[in-house]
Structures are given as C-alpha cells and as structure tokens.
Design a protein that fits this description.
binds fructose -6-phosphate; globular; alpha/beta
Length: about 625
C-alpha cells in the first residue's frame, strides 16, 4: 500500500527519495511523486501516474535540493492520476505533505475550509482526501502556530488513521513526520549528518540500521543532525533509537525471475528458521522461551479465537483445526474485518491469536483493539515484522523468521505462520496437560518434517508448469478440499485470483453439490486436493461427481496414488504426510500452479494490479 520516504542532509535529495521509493515498490502502488526543496526555498513537486520509471522519465534532470519527501500511492479517493498522486501542497504552496491512511471526514473538512474561504471553493487540485491536510496545517500556521502545533491541531481534526510526512517551503532544513492511529508506521533513520524517513524499513536499508519507530500521536521534527519528538502534554525529547537487523542480500531477487518464486523456494529455510529452538525434543517443549504468556495463563484459557485477513485468515483456519486437535480446547477463526464490527460472544476466558505477516493490517489491528477494549482478553500476535504495530498491541508475539517478503502475494510467511500456529497448539496442549511427554514429542517430530515436505513439493515445479500450460486460457477454477485441506483450497483460489487474475473459488468439497456444481462443464477445471487422510473417500466421491459433469480434474494427492491418478485428467503426487501436516505438502504445489499460470499469461507477478503488500486502509 502507500509508501512514504523523506530525506534531509547534504546530499541531493531527489535520487535518494527515488531509490527509497523503489525499495517500497513491493507494497503495490499506482502512482508516485517527490517534492524537493532547495536552500533558497525553491520547491519542485513532480508526480506521475504509473510506475516509478514513468516518474523518473518525467523528472529528467533531478531538481536541486537537500530536503524532500516522496510517496507511492495506492488509490483510495480519486482515480490513479498525476494530479491525485502525492505530494499535495496547500493552496499557498507553502505546506507540502505526503500521507498514508484515510481522512474519513475529508468531505466535511473540505466544506469547513471552503466555508472559511469561499473564494477558494473550487480550487482543490485533486480528488483526494489528503489535500485537506496541507490546507489545514497552513490554516493553523496563519493563526500564528508553529509547524508542530499546526500539525497537532490538524491531527486533532482528522478522523481515521494517518501517517504523514511534511515540510514548509520557508524552512529547507527540516522535515516533519506525524502518526495518528495505525495507518502503517513511520520510521526515522539516523545517518551521519543526514536523516531519513520511511514508512517501511527496506527503504532505509542502504543508508542506516539505526532507527526510531514513531508511536501513535507523536510528531517528529527531523533535521540533518537528528530528531526531536513531540508528544501531547509532554516536553519535546530526543527519542532513543535502536539497531535493526536487515540483511541487504535477503531483499535482492537473486537468480529468481520473480520475488514470489524466490520466496516460494525460501520456504523450507523460513520454516526451519521459524521452528529452530522452539520445538525441543529432549525433554520435549514447544515455544518454551521468548514467550510472554505463562503456563498458568494458558491453563486458564477456555477458548481460542484465531483471526486474520486474506492468506493469514487461511492460516488462522488451519490454526483453529490444530488448536482443537492438538490442544483439545474449543477454537474458532474469524475474519478480522467482520469480527471487529460485531459484538461476538468470545468467552469465557478467551485467548485471541492474530495472524498478520506485516503486523500492520488495519482490520487486524482494529480487531485487536476491539478485543482489548471490549474483553481485555490476552492476545498473541504471529507476525514476520519485529516492532510492527501488532506486536505492540499484543501481550505476546511469536515472530516468524522468514526474512523480508517482497512479493505482494504472501507465500513463505504463510507456511511460517502455520508453523507458529502448530507450535502454539502444542504449547497450549502441554500447558493444559492434554499432551504428555510422548505425545508432545510425537507432535513436534511431525512438525520437524515440515521443511522437507515443502522442499520435496518444490521439486514438482516442472510438473506444475506443464499442467499450468494447459490451463493458461481458463477463465475459472473451482478448488476443492476437505477438513484441514479446505483452507488450502481457499488459499489456492486466492493465489489464482491475486497473481493469475483467474476467477477461482475454494470450496469445502461437501458443499459442491449444494450449488457450485451447476457451474461445471468442460470449460470449468477443478483442482481437487485429495491426500490419503480420513476424508479421502469423500473426496473421491466429489471427484467422481465433477468428472460426471465432464469438468477437467487436476488432482493433487499422495505420491504414487494410482487410483487418484486414474480418476483425474492431471495428477500431481506430493510427499505423503501425517494427516495434520498435509497443508505443508500441498502448499508449494498450489503456489507454483498459480505462479506458472500467471507467468504463462505474462502478468506482473510481484506487483499484481490493485493489490498492496500491507493493507493499511479499510
Ligand atoms: C495474499 C495476501 C493478502 C494478505 C492480507 C493480510 O497473498 O498477501 O491476502 O494475506 O492482506 O495481510 P497480513 O498478513 O499482513 O495481515
């Protein structure tokens, strides 16, 4: 979703801003822009719809200036266009702003500003909600306030979450940042005689590993020598920075054609790293260290609710299954965006587990707030991003160790989240006395096979490519699974939609004859997930019903399953796994099928249209 960068120092700001924005491209965007200020107050604002290369081409010769802000926009209010792209300036041209988030009350704020200055009523330059921000700041400045006071007053008027970077034309030595709610973060980066701003760490990567994450409600004044943070009703202070660990090599694509392919292949490593030290066999323990909730707290839990969005919701569905099966405790899953606006009955003594690879998904954060405000229940977050907002809201975090995920479609963080949920199920089961030593050891030994299950699944890439080539033109897919494989069917359909732009539905196979079967004919391929688990025979019946409608069947089942291969038009054999572990065996295959369909269709796999890596708007 939208990305923010900022720079103030001795170097030319333009190239640094552009490079920072390039490092945020993975978040997804439809337009971009930079504003650069030189020491004499000459301001250059350059924006373009489309890719950063279009902006770069439009810029031609980089404007001089050692302070600036930049933005990649993902349209929410107003179409992707040059004029809607950020930065936006006040009508005087003095206050320049880039913004992540949504100003929910922008219409009434526009009306307020128009009423105060009727001659300005038709002079809005864009259709965006953002444009009210520089105008509000300028209005406050005109009333004699300092820039910080003006930003504070502006934040007080905005409804919804916002992250803002700004500067004033009269002061090329400073840039400002502010954060209200959870519209993604703002990170301040410390250089040597120069300072940076970014919505995400990768933008700071080549420059510095010393950072400060702006907290909700803080406003930062940043000059080339450092930052001062202003909090409500407190004296300004120099914040305590910290070191982050980001391996530059890990964010490069290496020999892979796409980040998504690289990340699919990184899954065995991501899994091993995430499990390492957390599944001990002698004596057996799961998540024994680094986990802030005690066994006593876990023992008192009577119900677990797992929430998330998109791929993380599919992980949550599988997590629910494991928590019930392994920990023997009632468990449920929920879509965070629905949950947060309901008044569900989640007790008694609930534990809420949020799954969010980014840790910044606004609906998941909203659901966590809902849990805290309404029930005060203990909360755990499973995330790949240390220091993300979700980790600050939760009582305990399980950090994935997947490394940066750049492709917009989640892959390695999905399997990482699965491993974390499985470990959590074991930990709860152990704390509640459901698993004795032998049973816990057995469960953990099973989990330790997950990296090799995925590894062997990756060897099927060529087979996936062959099959994908037969279905490049397909307009639809139905993906069927049962039990623990039903969420994998949903994940397969999501991947087809996201990167291959093929309409696909993931269904519990038992549901097929209650409606979707009406769609089936020779043009409607069905992907059937059918490993030899307890529901295998039921899946075979569903496949028979599909074949009877002449719909082509792509069956994914256990290696060497001649019966399944016979029934299907195409068959892919995955390594046989314990019934609870089949999600790990199936996941690489469904990812690779979607990848190869998208590749054959010539699509932008790492940055699919309309999608964003971190969804910070509702
Ligand atoms: C799918 C995908 C999205 C995310 C969803 C939640 O490939 O990437 O569906 O899973 O936006 O994101 P997180 O996990 O960051 O909360």
């Amino acid at each position: 979703m939208c990305g923010i960068v900022g720079y103030v120092g001795q170097q030319s700001a333009g190239p640094i801003l552009l490079e920072g924005l390039q490092r945020l491209e993975y978040r997804g965007y439809d337009s971009s822009g930079i504003a650069v200020l030189d020491r004499d107050g000459a301001l250059s604002v350059l924006k373009r719809q489309g890719k950063l290369r279009d902006l770069e081409a439009a810029i031609g010769v980089m404007p001089p200036g050692a302070a600036g802000i930049g933005h990649t926009r993902w349209a929410t209010h107003g179409t992707p266009s040059d004029r809607n792209a950020h930065p936006h300036a006040s009508s005087s041209g003095d206050v320049v702003v880039v913004h992540n988030g949504i100003v929910e009350n922008y219409r009434s704020l526009k009306a307020l500003l128009d009423a105060a200055k009727p001659e300005r009523a038709r002079s809005w330059q864009s259709e965006t909600d953002t444009e009210v921000i520089p105008e509000l700041i300028a209005r406050e400045l005109n009333q004699g306030r300092s820039f910080v006071e003006a930003m504070r007053a502006c934040l007080g008027l905005l409804h919804g979450a916002s992250a803002i970077a700004a500067f004033h034309r009269a002061d090329p030595s400073r840039i400002y940042a502010a954060r209200k709610g959870s519209a993604g973060g703002i990170v301040i980066g410390y250089g040597d005689g120069e300072m940076y701003l970014a919505s995400d760490l990768p933008a700071l990567l080549p420059h510095t590993a010393t950072v400060y994450h702006l907290e909700d409600g803080e406003i930062a004044v940043v000059d080339s020598q450092g930052a001062v943070v202003h909090r409500v009703n407190q004296p300004p202070l120099r914040p305590v920075s910290r070191q982050v660990d980001l391996d530059p090599v890990a964010v490069a694509r290496g020999p892979y054609r796409h980040f998504m392919l690289k990340e699919i292949h990184e899954q065995p490593r991501a899994l091993s790293d995430t499990i390492r030290g957390r599944a001990r066999l002698d004596p057996p323990s799961a998540l024994a260290d680094e986990f802030e909730l005690s066994d006593d707290q876990l023992r008192s839990v009577e119900r677990v609710l797992v929430i998330g969005m998109g791929t993380s919701l599919h992980a949550a569905m599988i997590g629910r299954w494991w928590i019930e099966q392994i920990a023997g405790i009632p468990a449920d899953f929920d879509n965070a965006s629905e949950f947060r606006f309901r008044a569900p009955v989640i007790g008694p003594s609930p534990l809420v587990v949020s799954v969010t690879q980014s840790g910044e998904t606004i609906d998941t954060l909203g659901a966590m707030d809902h849990v805290r405000d309404r029930w005060g229940a203990p909360q755990i977050v499973i995330t790949n991003v240390e220091g993300s907002e979700a980790t600050r809201k939760a009582d305990a975090s399980i950090l994935l160790r997947c490394g940066p995920e750049v492709g917009v479609a989640s892959t390695k963080t999905f399997v990482g989240s699965l491993a974390a949920l499985y470990l959590l199920a074991c930990r709860i089961g152990r704390a509640r006395g459901v698993l004795d030593d032998g049973e816990l050891t057995e469960r953990l030994e099973q989990l330790l096979t997950a990296p090799s299950l995925v590894e062997r699944g990756l060897e099927l890439s060529k087979r996936c490519k062959e099959i994908a080539s037969s279905y490049t033109g397909a307009a639809n897919f139905l993906v069927l699974g049962r039990g623990i494989e039903h969420p994998i069917a949903m994940e397969a359909a999501l991947k087809c939609k996201e990167i291959s732009y093929v309409h696909a539905e993931g269904y519990a196979a038992g549901e097929m004859k209650h409606g979707p079967i009406a769609l089936l004919d020779q043009q409607f391929p069905v992907i059937a997930l059918a490993t030899r688990g307890p529901l295998f025979d039921k899946m075979m019946s569903a496949i028979q019903q599909v074949s009877a409608r002449q719909a082509p069947v792509i069956a994914i089942g256990d290696e060497g399953d001649a019966e399944l291969a016979e029934l299907a038009d195409h068959y892919i054999g995955v390594p046989p796994a314990n019934d609870l572990l089949t999600p790990f065996a199936l996941t690489p295959v469904i990812q690779l099928l979607a990848y190869h369909i998208a590749l054959a269709r010539g699509l932008d796999i790492d940055q699919p249209r309309n999608l964003a890596k971190t969804v910070t708007v509702e």
